[in-house]
Amino acid sequence: MRIATWNINSLRLRMPTLQNVVAALKPDVVCLQETKVPDELFPVDDVRALGFEHILFAGMKGYNGVAILSKAPLTPIDRRDWCEKGDCRHIAAILPSGAELHNFYIPAGGDIPDPVLNDKFAHKLRFVDELADWFRGKAQAERILVGDLNIAPLEEDVWSHKQLLKVVSHTPVEVEKLIAAMKAHDWVDVLREFVPPDQKLYTWWSYRNRIWPGNDRGRRLDHVWVTPSLRPALAGATVLREARGWDKPSDHVPVAVDFNF
DNA sequence: ATGGTGGAAGGTCCA
Q: Which DSSP string do the residues of A14-29 spell out, in sequence order?
């Protein structure tokens, strides 16, 4: 089974690109973030035409929004209202294998890396703390967590560790919280199981950098985590880097992970 | 040090 995750930055605008992503990766499940479409306008028929009969979505007008597209049936489970904002940043399901799949869109956090001066950064930190607490309280099970976590935890997850230490996405406070959230449920960082931590690995390149991939100033903001019992089932990981160079790209590229089930 | 681009809107806000 291949599970892909992608911050699509508008599902309706990028439906043709989604078709190309599906053709390139042939995923069984696609988790999307930033669908930017209210539920009543979700393009169910277009998604079914791509081969995904089973669709879960939680969207709102203008911002945020998450969805799970699947070829096989999904059993919806406990969505929750993170930070009491009702803002469509999480959706979850049980896969046919029995594994739980959680799709997250963590707040980007604004520009100023200070929770006192910047409410958006405070929200981001609170969200990551809540994520840690929620899974810490759960019994171990076969679980997969994917999504745009908007944090690049390792030095080689950014183009310049030193230059990004004060840039939201790579500041010590959010990195520490993300690592604490991983430890709270023994999450395994799947991409780093396949690409060693001393090698650069990015999934996002800013729209504000016109010369992609010239200077390759990327960050690894998109992640796939699994609980330890799923580690033996891991069969591979792919970052579809080329998608950043396609026509009308998202600023994030799709990431796919293969499982032996 | 600054501003750079893109999306949803049809103001600006968000990233």
A: THHHHHHHHHHH--SE
